[in-house]
TrEMBL record:
<dbReference type="Pfam" id="PF05175">
    <property type="entry name" value="MTS"/>
</dbReference>
<feature type="binding site">
    <location>
        <position position="198"/>
    </location>
    <ligand>
        <name>S-adenosyl-L-methionine</name>
    </ligand>
</feature>
<dbReference type="GO" id="GO:0032259">
    <property type="term" value="P:methylation"/>
</dbReference>
<comment type="function">
    <text>Methylates the class 1 translation termination release factors RF1/PrfA and RF2/PrfB on the glutamine residue of the universally conserved GGQ motif.</text>
</comment>
<dbReference type="InterPro" id="IPR029063">
    <property type="entry name" value="SAM-dependent_MTases_sf"/>
</dbReference>
<dbReference type="GO" id="GO:0008168">
    <property type="term" value="F:methyltransferase activity"/>
</dbReference>
<dbReference type="InterPro" id="IPR007848">
    <property type="entry name" value="Small_mtfrase_dom"/>
</dbReference>
<protein>
    <recommendedName>
        <fullName>Release factor glutamine methyltransferase</fullName>
        <ecNumber>2.1.1.297</ecNumber>
    </recommendedName>
</protein>
<feature type="binding site">
    <location>
        <position position="155"/>
    </location>
    <ligand>
        <name>S-adenosyl-L-methionine</name>
    </ligand>
</feature>
<comment type="similarity">
    <text>Belongs to the protein N5-glutamine methyltransferase family. PrmC subfamily.</text>
</comment>
<dbReference type="InterPro" id="IPR004556">
    <property type="entry name" value="HemK-like"/>
</dbReference>
<dbReference type="InterPro" id="IPR050320">
    <property type="entry name" value="N5-glutamine_MTase"/>
</dbReference>
<dbReference type="InterPro" id="IPR040758">
    <property type="entry name" value="PrmC_N"/>
</dbReference>
<keyword id="KW-0949">S-adenosyl-L-methionine</keyword>
<keyword id="KW-0808">Transferase</keyword>
<dbReference type="InterPro" id="IPR002052">
    <property type="entry name" value="DNA_methylase_N6_adenine_CS"/>
</dbReference>
<feature type="binding site">
    <location>
        <begin position="132"/>
        <end position="136"/>
    </location>
    <ligand>
        <name>S-adenosyl-L-methionine</name>
    </ligand>
</feature>
């Protein structure tokens, strides 16, 4: 394979060359992507890249880096190339059936934790459900933060469920997390103190307009929210309501401009919206919540 990364290149030189190639191709964050790809190709963390910056690439390292470069230049996301990504400071393996966990979704975790710490102690072990769990990112982040809790994640994809189970094991949470294949919460019984979800919410007609990184590499099952983007909410909100413990809360991720309509669906399901949506770092109302009031 022809490569810009001859074995004579130093690690630092290779990083600069790759960043320039990515920038010329219009890739966002070319310097960050180059650092991540060089580190992965050479099996080095950031410290190793700094301390070995002047070391020359071995032939197999140059070939591996070029293969990664070609994939990124074809707009394959770095997370897909690496097969893993960080969420809530924790490492998550990915598969073709899982979304790449995004910083926006950490807003759901933040709001869930805020609500949980305000719940009245029921005297039983806290229980969490994650609907459409994918890689297990939301559920496992919450279990990591709430040591006494147990949880269950659901997904239609058996491949996603295997990925989530593997992540639970790798994070030392397998004894507190279980995973089940079903549509939304259909196979769950409850009661749950928290039900969380990042459901598909992109209107079907908008999917072809998404970036190449998303529309060609994220699973459409986890993106497509139907004609208006609300199909998943209409299905999961009533199911979650039935399975919530009195005083428990439902927290969902929302797309831009969707928060108010989601609150309306929650109210229609007899949940009480008792706080405003939590905004992400861009100021977009991203996490929407409501509670099931005690009788």
């Amino acid at each position: 394979m022809a490569t810009d990364f001859d074995p004579g290149h130093s690690i630092e030189s290779a990083r600069r060359v790759l960043a320039a190639r990515l920038q010329s191709a219009g890739i966002e964050q070319p310097a960050l992507d180059a650092r991540l790809l060089v580190g992965a190709a050479l099996r080095l963390d950031l410290t190793g890249m700094v301390t070995q910056a002047g070391r020359q690439l071995a032939p197999e390292e140059a070939a591996r880096l070029e293969a990664y470069a070609q994939r990124r230049l074809a707009h394959e996301p770095v997370a897909r190339i690496l097969g893993a990504w960080e969420f809530w400071g924790l490492p998550f393996q990915l598969s073709e059936a899982t979304l790449v966990p995004r910083p926006d979704t950490e807003t759901v975790v933040e709001l869930a934790l805020e609500i949980f710490h305000g719940l009245t102690n029921s005297g039983r072990r806290p229980c969490i459900a994650d609907i459409g769990t994918g890689s297990g990112a939301i559920l496992l982040a919450l279990l990591h933060e709430i040591p006494g809790a147990v949880g269950v994640g659901t997904d239609l994809s058996l491949t996603a469920l295997k990925t989530a189970r593997d992540n639970a094991a790798a994070l030392g949470l397998a004894d507190r997390a279980s995973f089940v294949g079903c549509s939304y919460a259909a196979a769950l019984r409850g009661p749950f103190d928290l039900v969380v979800s990042n459901p598909p919410y992109i209107p079907s007609a908008e999917i072809p307009k998404l970036s190449i990184e998303v529309r060609e590499h994220d699973p459409h099952l986890a993106l497509d929210g139907g004609n208006d983007g609300y199909d998943a909410y209409r299905a999961l909100i009533p199911q979650a309501t039935e399975r919530l413990a009195p005083g428990g809360a439902l927290i969902v991720e929302a797309g831009q401009g969707q928060a108010r309509n989601i609150e309306t669906l929650m109210t229609a399901a007899a949940l009480v919206v008792d706080r405003p949506p939590k905004a992400d770092l861009a100021g977009i109302p991203r996490a929407v919540s409501a509670r099931k009031m005690p009788p």
